[in-house]
Amino acid sequence: MPYIIIGLIVAAIVIAIVAGRRNNDGNGENNGQRRNSEKRTPTERKRPVATIRRRDRLTPEKIAGNRGEKVAEIYIKRALDGDDYVFKNVEIVYDGRETELDEVVVNCCGVFIIEVKNLRGIINGGEDDTEWTQYKTADSGITYGNSVKNPIKQVNREVYLLKNYLLERGVNVWVEGYVFFVQGNCPVRGERVLESIDEIRETVHTPVQYAPGQKKADRVAEILAKCSR
User: How many distinct structural domains can be found in the chain?
Assistant: First the structure.
């Protein structure tokens, strides 16, 4: 009898030891799983990341151009009457060719594109040249030159595109194009170059050949309003 009791006690002790080891192993596995789960959480539960669209970088030339357009806008508005329309940054596409018109004045006298340039330094070039040269002096005292497109040829192209763009939409109207240099340093003097507020005022209020009249001017303004920024 005593041997049976001792045997039962030993068996109970062995069972208790084995059970304890299993619990420890189970706890270790659970803890390991939790640690693994915690380590995986950042990758498994990724939050949606908002994408930010980068703005176009503003180069010094772009900044100067924007400033020039703002100055020109003030000049042009001073030259206008109450019945005149003015549109800026007009984007059009004709025959697969895109262009952006700096300023467009519309009234009963005509449709007038004004290409604005804010080029500092000395500009050399002729009316028939494809490119002009801009000379600027750096802070170091070194003078360097850059090639720039001839804006007179540029505005002639814009006249062609705008005229045909309007014609596609049922409006046959005469279009004129001019260049305005904010710095007053255009190397060309001629009928395509505007040099003052008075010249702008006189030009846009002198009837062109086949002046559109008010009704057609209103129709042109309606079309351009959809293209202006």
Answer: 2
Is residue 116 domain-shared with residue 9, that is, in the same domain? no
Each residue's pLDDT tens digit in the chain (229 positions)?
Answer: 555 555 555 555 656 555 555 555 555 445 444 444 444 444 444 433 333 333 445 455 556 556 767 887 888 999 999 999 999 999 999 999 999 999 999 999 999 999 999 999 999 999 999 999 999 998 888 998 999 999 999 999 999 999 999 999 999 999 999 999 999 999 999 999 999 999 999 999 999 989 999 999 999 999 999 998 7
Residue 139 CA to residue 143 CA, distance in Å, equals 9
Q: Which residue has the tokens 């006298």?
A: 109
- Which residue range(s) make up the domain with 43? 1-53
Angle at 197 between CA 107 and CA 100, to 5 degrees: 60
Pair 124, 89 in one domain: yes
pTM of this prediction?
A: 0.70
